[in-house]
Amino acid sequence: MSDQNAKELIAEAEKWEGIQGRIADIADVLNSPSYQTVSTESWRDEHAEQTIQWLHNARSLLILAMHHPKEKPELDWFDRGNTSGNRWLTKISKALVEWLDDTHGIKAQALPYQVEKGGVYLKDAACLAGLGVIGKNNLLIHPEWGPHVRLRSVLIQDYLPPSRPLENFNPCSRCAMPCRKACPENALAQGRFHRPSCMLQLESDRTNKIERNKDDAEGSPHLVTAWCRRCEFACPVGTY
Ligand code: B12
């Protein structure tokens, strides 16, 4: 697949409002820091029955970043096993898979969000593809949208020339890092992300669901989980 085709694919992805797309080389993604940190082999086996099979000989990934503005918190609300932001990204991914086949005869596969189901570590992939950098809040910081993005990937059988990582974008270097103080469980207080502390807060969010402005069919208040986003909102990038 040529440079021109890769450009066309990115342009097709970006026809969707609030979406930016970039390409990563699968080999680079599977070699990225998250894969070095977590041994995926053992728990791939544990979750074997729910993991999808990847297209044979896939070489590239299209990484999608969806702007998740503060005014649309409902994109992240967990309801009936999913969020509307996730559903939207699935719809876009599937439309792009169809477009690649129809327009270029190229096979592609929309990957799930969860790594144990066959997804990839999306922040690493997005960083390699030049959609942003990893900030001190342990989130991908997009130059325009800040950490207010949600990510997804599409596996592509052909080789597409990868996009380049960002250069000269170091948003945390002169920042007072308010994210470190924002976490109610101090998951960032030691200077690096402490996952068990973050999990405590998210567990509490799961227990303390909020009422959505809509009753369900039986007239009962509709409850959803609104995950904590304090480390995200503390970041000054993307707030203008
Ligand atoms: C499991 C998971 C969680 C778990 C554990 C998180 C964790 N980091 O361990 C829990 C439930 C706690 C969680 C919490 C949150 N999550 Co979460 N989570 C995921 C998931 C499914 C996998 C992440 C994972 O396990 N990573 C592996 C661990 C080992 O790595 P890590 O801690 O992220 O750190 C690695 C990177 O920072 C990387 N890295 C560091 N520097 C560099 C530099 C370069 C060049 C590269 C390539 C990589 C790199 O190396 C580190 C490991 O060594 C991803 C979706 C996906 N498929 O990737 C979403 C995801 C990361 N989560 C997301 C979000 C938004 C959140 C929350 C804000 C909650 C919320 N409102 O949804 C918090 C934020 C916590 C935080 N500050 O990190 C978004 C992040 C968007 C963004 N802008 O980055 C993702 C991408 C999902 C999405 N919807 O798009 N999450």
Keywords:
4-stranded antiparallel β-sheet; alpha+beta; 240 residues; two-stranded antiparallel ribbon; 32% helix; binds cobalamin; 2 domains; 10 strands
Description:
This protein has 240 residues and is an alpha+beta fold. The protein is built from 9 helices and 10 strands. The model has no long low-confidence stretch (mean pLDDT 91). Helix 1 runs antiparallel to helix 5 (84-104). The protein has helices at residues 3-13, 26-29, 33-37, 40-46, 84-104, 122-128, 179-182, 195-207, 230-233, and strands at residues 19-25, 60-67, 78-79, 82-83, 108-110, 133-134, 140-141, 149-156, 210-215, 221-224. The strands form 4 sheets. A 4-stranded antiparallel beta sheet has the order 1-2-8-5, sandwiched between helices. The radius of gyration is 18 Å and the shape is globular. The protein has 2 domains: 3-156, no CATH class; 179-233, no CATH class. Cobalamin binds at residues 32-34, 37-38, 76, 113-115, 119, 121-124, 127-128, 134, 137-140, 147, 149-151, 193, 195, 198-199, 202, 227, 229, 231-232. The site of cobalamin (B12) has 34 residues, from helix 3, helix 6, strand 8, helix 8 and helix 9.
Can I get a quick summary?
This protein is an alpha+beta fold and 240 residues long.
Mean pLDDT level? 91
What order do the helices and strands follow?
Answer: HEHHHEEEHEHEEEHHEEH
What overall geometry do the principal axes of the alpha carbons give?
globular
Largest sheet: 4 strands, antiparallel
Tally the helices: 9
Helix content: 25-40%
Q: Give the end-to-end Cα distance, rounded to a whole number of Å.
A: 38 Å
List how many beta strands DSSP finds: 10
* Structural domain count: 2
Structural class: alpha+beta
Extract low-pLDDT stretches: none
Q: Which cofactor or ligand species appear? A: cobalamin
Strand order of the biggest β-sheet: 1-2-8-5
Using only CA atoms, what is the Rg? Answer: 18 Å
Q: How much of the sequence is in beta strands?
A: 15-25%
